[in-house]
Amino acid sequence: MSRKLRAGIVGGTGMVGQRFIALLENHPWFEVTAIAASARSAGKTYEESAKGRWKLSTPMPENVKNIMVQDASKVEEVAADVDLIFCAVDMKKDEIKALEEAYARTGTPVISNNSAHRWTPDVPMVIPEINPEHLEVIAQQRKRLGTETGFIAVKPNCSIQSYVPALHALKDFNPSKVVVTTYQAISGAGKTFADWPEMLDNVIPYIGGEEEKSEQEPLRIWGSVQEEGIVKSEAPTITSQCIRVPVADGHMAAVFVSFEKKPSKEEILNLWKSFKGRPQELELPSAPKQFITYFEEDNRPQTKLDRDIENGMGVSTGRLREDALYDYKFVGLSHNTLRGAAGGAVLIAELLKAEGYIQPK
Ligand SMILES: N[C@@H](CC=O)C(=O)O
């Protein structure tokens, strides 16, 4: 049996970095062999550097405790002994762009949770069940970066996972207009209630930059691969409001949608139930068996009860009904730090490996 691929986590001390570490414990294809963070954390063991900062309810995996944290800006050193990198850093956009390109230029695949490269034309932004064909653009990117093996692939913003899969399953009916309101958990801001007490008993009707992402990123996901890179789709028109709610994990979306050709309710339910993508065909280790689960109960899905469906990699829908102004309305839910962040990125890495884009160095 071939050896596991060695994964580096750049930004390993943050909340998404911690999720990567937890998800890769016992992963059949990848193992964490390097962790990098700011110069402040470098030179300590991971256990020391994350002391008092480990935010997950599961304990820190034993296999990472003694890894010496490296300085993420020392790109050649970090990249030297890894086959791929997962990146989730808190820096300025331009700095992240440059850092990720520097890693890719070392010949290392970079799978990023950051938004910096989401609109770089030759960087694929992927939800593996929806647009796996966008990986083709990696060939163009490798030419630009002057590397045969390195590249950057990114995942989209966490909010869109709660409604884009449900709309994508109905694409043959051409959704034309979408109104979405997202109710987003505090972990999306990298916080817990302990470090964000303002969120107890409170709702904040603003998340910087989130509405633009929620309206525009789906169009890139539904875009096509052209000579100039990924060209975004023109339809549907999406308008959104994004609201922070006092929930630990799980982003919910309330959606109104009209179609060019209106499907029946039965057609929608059948399409949601039967929808499968490339991860399910390839039986990737993190792929949910059932991607979209519809709840018949009027009070479901609920964030607390249903966010962990399919190990946090499934998407749930509910309350589908006809609407007076639009064709239909429904709600969607996804786990923002699993499917919407680290889990989504691990699934992209699995797809990249299965399709031959990531090899042992
Ligand atoms: N920007 C989101 C995080 C998703 O990637 C949020 O603030 O919830």
From TrEMBL:
PANTHER family: ASPARTATE-SEMIALDEHYDE DEHYDROGENASE. It comes from Paenibacillus odorifer. GO terms for biological process: methionine biosynthetic process; threonine biosynthetic process. Keywords: NADP, Oxidoreductase. One of its GO terms (molecular function) is aspartate-semialdehyde dehydrogenase activity. CDD domains: ASADH_C_arch_fung_like, ScASADH_like_N. Pfam families: Semialdhyde_dh, Semialdhyde_dhC. Belongs to the aspartate-semialdehyde dehydrogenase family. Residues 6-138 form the Semialdehyde dehydrogenase NAD-binding domain. This is Aspartate-semialdehyde dehydrogenase. SUPFAM superfamilies: Glyceraldehyde-3-phosphate dehydrogenase-like, C-terminal domain (SSF55347), NAD(P)-binding Rossmann-fold domains (SSF51735). The active site is at C158, H251. Gene3D superfamilies: Dihydrodipicolinate Reductase, domain 2, NAD(P)-binding Rossmann-like Domain.
